[in-house]
Design a protein that fits this description.
Elements (H helix, E strand, L loop, with lengths): L11 H9 L2 E3 L10 H11 L8 H7 L6 H11 L6 H17 L2 E4 L2 E2 L1 H5 L5 H19 L2 E2 L1 E6 L4 H10 L7 E7 L11 H9 L3 E6 L5 H11 L3 E4 L7 H10 L2 E4 L1 H6 L11 H6 L3 E4 L11 H12 L3 H14 L4 H15 L4
Parallel strand pairs: 1-2, 2-4, 3-5, 5-6, 6-7, 7-8, 8-9, 9-10
The chain binds adenine and zinc ion.
The site of zinc ion (ZN) has 6 residues, from loops.
Length: about 350
Amino acid sequence: MLSDAPRRQLAGPIAALIERLPKVELHVHLEGTLEPELAYELAARNGIPMPYASAAEMRRAAMEFTSLQSFLDVYYAACAALVTRADFRDLTLAYLERANADGVRHVEPFFDPQTHTDRGVAIDDVIGGILDGLAEGERRYGITSGLIMSFLRHLPPEAADVTLSAAEPWLDRLVAVGLDSSEVGFPPEPFAGTFARARSLGLKAVAHAGEEGEAELVARTLDALAVSRVDHGVRAAEDPALVRRLAECGVTLTACPNSNVRLRVFPTMDRSPIKRLLDAGVAVTVNSDDPAYFGGYIGDNYRAIAAALGLTAAELGRLAANAINGSFASAERKRELFDELALALAGGE
Ligand code: ADE
Ligand code: ZN
């Protein structure tokens, strides 16, 4: 079972509204959408040994995380299956097929190039394959996207800088840089130079903070990296002054309810501060993080948080609007998405 949270029944009209919402996903790691069955199919195709005897065993291991690090160990190991440009395309398309079923209309996914280049995979195959998948997904499903290249913070900051340089031929196809992996012990400040360079090259910046790390790390991330969004950021709720700062500056938080419970950021879903943040005027959003590992895609996250916190239709509308507003989509695309949201809230198709 996902969590020990007391489960409230989701009222029919709220469940129907969640189905209808045009969803914008701002926090999903493509590598975290690698379902065990696809991982084993790709591993067989590439002749790569996998760390578990079967997809079923990998799925069982994915139920037993006790911390961010215990999850990341499995996540990085499974990435060994991804080798060719076609693998990255197939991974991306498999995610978009599920996202489409969930009503996702725009997505800004992360990928971790260093997880692949450190194994000898060419960065051109990683980015080229993902872009192939995103283009095909837009043709098939009409889902628009902006791709975010994330640096691994457990590796030296110089490696992030080398990665930014290696990606230079692709920069006009990326929308932002990000920062992920183990948070505690790997603060944001050493990455300030690379983030400043990325911004000077025309990219936006986002970064994970306030997941396992304390509220203070959210403030330090805003100060050091000048990010437009904080990924997770939920532990900011522990500091009232920081909550006021977030509400005033309008920075978007990309919260991931199922991930937070699975990785024990909160013991149960009803302890999530998402409603408190929303009430305080913070631009919080709902996302899936690593849906292949955390028991569901974005729709499941909306349903879980709505049930646990008893969210109203108006609150769900604000969460969806925050995601449109906080995205890096063009003004025209945002207008289309807001029109779709207004229809969904009015009960129309
Ligand atoms: N990489 C993939 N998922 C992550 C998470 N939840 N936190 C930090 N790094 C990640
Ligand atoms: Zn994440």
